[in-house]
Write a structure and sequence with these properties.
The complex is a heterodimer of chains A (410) and B (336).
Chain A lengths: L6 H50 L11 H8 L5 H29 L8 H35 L1 E6 L2 E6 L3 H9 L3 H30 L6 H14 L2 H8 L2 H6 L10 H14 L2 H20 L1 H12 L3 H9 L4 H12 L1 H16 L5 H11 L5 H27 L8
Antiparallel strand pairs in A: 1-2
Chain B lengths: L1 H6 L12 H10 L6 H33 L3 H5 L14 H8 L2 H32 L5 H13 L2 H13 L6 H6 L10 H9 L5 H14 L2 H9 L4 H12 L1 H17 L2 H6 L7 H6 L1 H6 L7 H26 L15
Helix pairs in contact in B: 3-18, 5-18, 6-10, 6-11, 6-14, 7-11, 12-13, 14-18
The chains are: A mainly alpha (410), B mainly alpha (336).
Chain lengths: 410, 336
C-alpha cells in the first residue's frame, strides 16, 4: 500500500525542493560570482602583464595564456541558457578589452604618427623640378669644368696614347699675370668696353622697347628690323662678311670697332670747327659706340618687349582715370613692373659682352689654345681667370640691382 | 541741394555758376588731353628716329641682297653701288650647289627644331621649380645656372670633346656593347644637353622663365591647390599655358642661335652631317674648289648669295613668329 504523503511531507518536500533550488541558484550565483571574480582576476593579471610588457617594450605574447571562455565552460555547466549567454557576452567583452589593451600597448611602443607637412611636400616637389637640370649639369658641364681646371694647373701635351698632363702648380697663372705682356691690357680694355656697354645698351633697349610697344603704322616692320642684329651678328655671317674688304669699307660688317664711313668726315669737320682734339675724339668715339650699341641691343629689345606685354593694361586704364600723365605712367607703372626683366637684361648684357665672338680676350685665349702655340694648359688658366673676373662682376652688379627690383606677387 | 533746385525754381531766376572751389575741383579731375600739335611733333620725331635706326639695321641685309644680284660686270663697274645695272640670278644656283643647300638645310633644321622644342619645355619646367618652391640649396643651384652661362666655350671644349669621344655614363654602354661608344659625328652631342636644360644659353632661358613665373599671381596656384591639383598638375594645366610671352621669346632666340651656331657643329660634325652655318663659313673654298686662284668678281656675289640663302629661313621664321607678340595679355581668371 502506498503511503499517503502527509501534507507535512509535501511541504517538507517542497521546502526541500525550494532549498535545493535555492541552493542551486545560490550555487549558480556563487558560481557566477566565482567566475566573475576569476575573470576579474584574470583581467587584472592581464592588465598587469600588459603593463609589464609595455614597460619592457616587448611585443605582447601571442600565446593563449588564459582563455576565460574555457574557464567559464569548465567551471559551470550552465543549465541556465540566459546565464550562459550572458557569460559568453561577458567573455567577448573581456576579449575585446584584452585586445584593446594589447593594441594600446603596441601603439604606445611605436613612435607617434606624423603627417607630411605642406612645406615638406613643397620641398620635395621643388627638388623634382630642379634636379633635372642638376643631373644634366653634372653629366655634361661639371666633368669638363673639373678637367679644364686640372688642365690649367698643368702642362698639356699630346702623345700617341692621348693627352698627357704634367703638373705645374700655379705656374700658368703666374705666367698670365707676370710674364704675359698682352693679357692684362686686353683684359682692361674688354672690361672698360663692357662697363660702358651695359649702361648704354640697357637704357637704349628699354627706350626703344617702350616706343615699340605703342601702336603705330609699320610697327611690325620696325620690330622685324630690330631683331635683325640677332640674326646677323652671328658667327657664320660675320666671318663671311668681314673677310671681305669691300664690305668692311662700307661699314656693312658692323661689329665692334668698325668705323662708320661718315664719321671720318664728321671728325675732320669738328676738328676744323673747334680745334680741340680730346673733345672731338670723345664725341666720335661716342658716335661709333652708338652704332655698336644699336647692334648689340637686339636681344634686349626682344626681352623687354615680351616683358612689357605681360603688364596688364588695366593698370594703365585705372591710372589714366586717376589723371596720370604718360611720364608718370612710365615711372610708376612700367618701370617697376619690368624691373625683374631689367635684371635679366643686365645679366644677359654682361654675359653677352663677355662671351662675344669679337671679344679680344677670347680671341687671345682661343689663339693660345688652337692657334700658333698649342698651349692648352695656359689657355685654360687664362680662361679660368677671365671666368672668375666675370663671375665677380656679375655678382656685384646683380646684387646691387636686385635689391631695388619690385615683384608684384612675391 | 538738388531738392532745393527742383522745389524752388521760379522762372527768370539766373542760374548761379560754380563757386571757385567747385571750379578748382573740376579742373583737377579733368583728364588732360595733349594738344594736337604736340601729337604731331611726337609722331614726326618717332618717324625720323625710326627711319634712321631701321636704315642702320637693315643696311647689311640690303647689302647682301644687292651684292648677290650683281653680275660680274657690275662688280667691276664702280658706278653701281646699290642697284645693279645687269642683275643676274645666276649667283643663287651656284651658291646652292657650292654649299649643298638641301643637305645642310636638313641637318640644320633637325638640330635647330629639336633643340628649340626641348629647350623650351625643359627650361620652363626648371624655371618654375626655381620660382615657386623653397628648398635649402635653391640659391646655390641657381648661381650655378647663371655660371654656366658665363663659361667661355673655349674652356670646356676639349674635355667635352674627349667625353663625347668615349661616351660612357656610369658604365652602361660598356655593359651593353663592351666598350664606350663614339658620339662624334652624330647629332647627339648637340641635342642631348638641351634635354637636360644645359644646352646653348639655356641658363638665360631658365632665368627668363623664373622671372616670369615669379611675376604670376599666387592666387592662380592657390585656386588650383584648392581644387586638388598637385604641383605638377598645377604647372601643366595652369602655369604653362599662361607663359606665352616668354615662350615665344625663347623659341625665337633658341632657333636663331642654334641655326647660327658655328663652334659646336664645327667641332662635332663632319662632311655630310654638317650644318648650314659651317658650310657657309667654308663657302669660299667650296666655290673655288680649294684652289689658290680666286676670281673676286665671281666669288663675292656667289658668297653673298650663299649668305642670302642662309638667312632666308630665319627671316621667314621671325616674320611668322612676331605675330605672337600679342599686346596686353589680360590675365584671365582673376576677379577682384
Amino acid at each position: 500500500m502506498e503511503e499517503k504523503k502527509t501534507p507535512n511531507q509535501d511541504t517538507a518536500d517542497a521546502a526541500v525542493n525550494a532549498e535545493t533550488k535555492q541552493t542551486k541558484s545560490s550555487k549558480d550565483d556563487q558560481v557566477k560570482m566565482a567566475v566573475k571574480a576569476q575573470k576579474e582576476e584574470k583581467k587584472s593579471a592581464k592588465a598587469k602583464k600588459a603593463e609589464k610588457q609595455a614597460v619592457e617594450k616587448v611585443v605582447p605574447n601571442t600565446e593563449k595564456s588564459v582563455d576565460p571562455k574555457a574557464q567559464v565552460q569548465k567551471a559551470v555547466k550552465p543549465a541556465d541558457k540566459k546565464a550562459a549567454q550572458a557569460q559568453k557576452a561577458q567573455a567577448k567583452a573581456a576579449k575585446k578589452a584584452v585586445r584593446a589593451q594589447k593594441a594600446a600597448a603596441k601603439a604606445a611602443n611605436r613612435r607617434p604618427k606624423k603627417f607630411r607637412s605642406l612645406q615638406k611636400s613643397q620641398r620635395v616637389a621643388g627638388r623634382c623640378f630642379v634636379y633635372v637640370w642638376f643631373v644634366g649639369f653634372l653629366l655634361f658641364v661639371a666633368r669638363p669644368l673639373v678637367q679644364s681646371l686640372q688642365f690649367s694647373f698643368s702642362r698639356v701635351s699630346t702623345t700617341r696614347t692621348g693627352l698627357e698632363l704634367q703638373f705645374l702648380g700655379w705656374d700658368n697663372y703666374q705666367k698670365a699675370f707676370v710674364s704675359d705682356a698682352e693679357f692684362i691690357p686686353l683684359l682692361i680694355d674688354t672690361l672698360s668696353i663692357m662697363a660702358m656697354d651695359i649702361v648704354m645698351v640697357v637704357f637704349f633697349s628699354l627706350f626703344i622697347a617702350v616706343l615699340l610697344n605703342r601702336k603705330f603704322r609699320g610697327r611690325g616692320l620696325v620690330r622685324a628690323a630690330f631683331f635683325l642684329p640677332v640674326i646677323i651678328m652671328s658667327g657664320a655671317l660675320m666671318s663671311v662678311m668681314s673677310s671681305d674688304m669691300s664690305a668692311q669699307f662700307s661699314g656693312a660688317a658692323g661689329g665692334s670697332g668698325m668705323p662708320l664711313l661718315r664719321t671720318v668726315d664728321f671728325k675732320t669737320m669738328l676738328l676744323q670747327m673747334t680745334n680741340y682734339n680730346p673733345m672731338v675724339e670723345y664725341f666720335t668715339n661716342a658716335m661709333d659706340r652708338i652704332y655698336d650699341v644699336i647692334w648689340k641691343s637686339g636681344v634686349q629689345i626682344l626681352l623687354f618687349l615680351s616683358g612689357l606685354q605681360s603688364i596688364s593694361p588695366s593698370l594703365y586704364e585705372s591710372a589714366s582715370i586717376e589723371g596720370c600723365t604718360a611720364w608718370e605712367a612710365f615711372w610708376k607703372i612700367t618701370f617697376p613692373m619690368i624691373s625683374p626683366i631689367i635684371i635679366v637684361n643686365v645679366v644677359y648684357t654682361v654675359v653677352d659682352s663677355f662671351t662675344d665672338i669679337n671679344n679680344k680676350t677670347l680671341e687671345y685665349i682661343q689663339d693660345t689654345a688652337f692657334g700658333t702655340t698649342l698651349d692648352y694648359g695656359y689657355s685654360s688658366a687664362l680662361s679660368w681667370i677671365y671666368f672668375a673676373i666675370i663671375a665677380v662682376v656679375l655678382v656685384i652688379v646683380v646684387g646691387l640691382i636686385s635689391r631695388k627690383a619690385f615683384y608684384m606677387n612675391d | 541741394m538738388s531738392q532745393k533746385a527742383i522745389s524752388a525754381k521760379p522762372a527768370g531766376l539766373k542760374k548761379k555758376g560754380p563757386t571757385f572751389n567747385q571750379w578748382l575741383n573740376r579742373q583737377k579731375h579733368k583728364v588732360k588731353q595733349a594738344p594736337f600739335w604736340k601729337n604731331v611733333l611726337l609722331n614726326i620725331f618717332l618717324l625720323i628716329l625710326f627711319t634712321g635706326l631701321v636704315y642702320v639695321l637693315i643696311y647689311p641685309v640690303i647689302y647682301i641682297v644687292s651684292t648677290s644680284l650683281k653680275s660680274q660686270a657690275d662688280m667691276l663697274d664702280s658706278t653701281t653701288v646699290w642697284v645693279p645695272k645687269h642683275p643676274s640670278l645666276s649667283n643663287y644656283p651656284a651658291a646652292f650647289e657650292a654649299i649643298d643647300y638641301l643637305a645642310g638645310l636638313k641637318n640644320t633644321l633637325i638640330i635647330a627644331v629639336t633643340t628649340t622644342v626641348l629647350q623650351t619645355i625643359t627650361c620652363s619646367f626648371i624655371g618654375y621649380g626655381f620660382a615657386r618652391f623653397k628648398f635649402k640649396e635653391k640659391n646655390l643651384i641657381f648661381a650655378l645656372v647663371i655660371l654656366t652661362l658665363i663659361i667661355p666655350v673655349q674652356t670646356i671644349v676639349l674635355p667635352q670633346y674627349l667625353q663625347y669621344r668615349t661616351f660612357d655614363i656610369f658604365g652602361i654602354f660598356t655593359a651593353i656593347t663592351g666598350g664606350p661608344i663614339n658620339l662624334v659625328n652624330t647629332f647627339v652631342p648637340l641635342i642631348l644637353p638641351s634635354f637636360f636644360g644645359v644646352g646653348l644659353k639655356s641658363g638665360l632661358f631658365i632665368y627668363l622663365f623664373r622671372q616670369f613665373y615669379r611675376g604670376m599671381p599666387k592666387e592662380l596656384e592657390e585656386a588650383g591647390y584648392i581644387d586638388g591639383c598637385g604641383p605638377f598638375r598645377t604647372y601643366m594645366r595652369i602655369m604653362w599655358p599662361n607663359a606665352t610671352a616668354p615662350m615665344v621669346s625663347v623659341i625665337l632666340l633658341s632657333f636663331v642661335w642654334h641655326w647660327n651656331d658655328v663652334f659646336e657643329p664645327d667641332m662635332y660634325l663632319e662632311s655630310a652631317n654638317r650644318t648650314l652655318a659651317v658650310r657657309l663659313v667654308n663657302i669660299t673654298s667650296a666655290i673655288t674648289g680649294s684652289s689658290e686662284v680666286t676670281n673676286l668678281t665671281y666669288v663675292i656675289p656667289t658668297k653673298y648669295a650663299g649668305c642670302g640663302l642662309f638667312i632666308l629661313p630665319l627671316i621667314i621664321v621671325y616674320l611668322v613668329g612676331q605675330r605672337y607678340f600679342v599686346e596686353g595679355m589680360e590675365r584671365a581668371g582673376i576677379v577682384g
